[in-house]
Amino acid sequence: MKLKITPTRQEVFLGAEEIIVSKTDMTGRLTYANRVFMRLADFSENELLGKQHNIVRHPDMPRGAFKLLWDTLKQNREFFGFVKNMTANGDYYWVFANVTPDINARGECVGYFSVRRRPGNEAISIIQPIYQEMLAVESRAGAANAPAASVEFLQAKLKSLNTTYERFILSLAQE
Ligand SMILES: Cc1cc2nc3c(=O)[nH]c(=O)nc-3n(C[C@H](O)[C@H](O)[C@H](O)COP(=O)(O)O)c2cc1C
């Protein structure tokens, strides 16, 4: 069960040299969290291990962003994205995440890794309004259709900019 946390307007930041690392099973249940993750999100190891990664989910994140993440991972491909996360007391922090399948010696996917660093302010100022538009699309689409509708909206937007999701996100990550 996920406890209900009320979001605050307080932002907390990853240091420029810091990296958050976590590892999950195939369902997104945490099997590892590094110390930077525990410190910034303000959860103890006990509170994190065995919990779903949505323990740090922020309500400002559109569901479509996570649909893209999971659709990409299920194809055994790595995912890049900007994510607004929530700490144990409701504060928020932005990360640029690279999530990769954890492949064993037999070539089978046995879970996932995520490595995140502090994103640039410029990138956040571009991605944040896009997530807000995706959220608006989702609330118009209704719960069942929300993730697909906002992914469709995002893909159409990227197409009009003559780019793809990965090219767009990686270009923002250079900012
Ligand atoms: C390796 C890995 C790392 C993840 N990291 C995050 C994260 O930092 N924040 C987050 O909200 N979801 C993260 N997710 C996605 C969550 O599993 C989940 O899909 C998302 O929080 C949406 O949750 P919901 O379906 O309950 O809304 C991660 C998933 C994986 C596999």
Describe this structure in words.
With 175 residues, the protein is of the alpha+beta class. It has one domain: 2-Layer Sandwich (Beta-Lactamase). Helices cover 39% and strands 22% of the residues. The protein contains six helices and five strands, in the order ββαααβββααα. It has a five-stranded antiparallel sheet. Strand 1 (20-24) and strand 2 (30-33) form a beta hairpin. The protein is globular. The protein binds flavin mononucleotide. Flavin mononucleotide is lined by residues 22, 24, 28, 52-54, 56-57, 61, 63, 66, 69, 83, 85, 99, 112, 114. The site of flavin mononucleotide has 17 residues, from strand 1, helix 3, strand 3 and strand 5.
Protein traits:
175 residues; Beta-Lactamase; five-stranded antiparallel β-sheet; binds flavin mononucleotide
CATH hierarchy: architecture: 2-Layer Sandwich
Helix content: 25-40%
Compounds present?
Answer: flavin mononucleotide
Full CATH superfamily name: PAS domain
Q: In one word, what is the shape? A: globular
Structural class: alpha+beta
What do we call the CATH topology? Answer: Beta-Lactamase
**Lateral arrangement of strands in the main beta sheet:** 2-1-5-4-3
Instruction: For the record, give the distance between the C-alpha atoms at the N and C termini, rounded to a whole number.
Output: 38 Å
Structure summarized in a few sentences:
With 175 residues, the chain is α+β, with helices and mostly antiparallel strands. Helix content is 39%, strand content 22%. A hairpin with a 5-residue loop joins β1 and β2 (30-33).
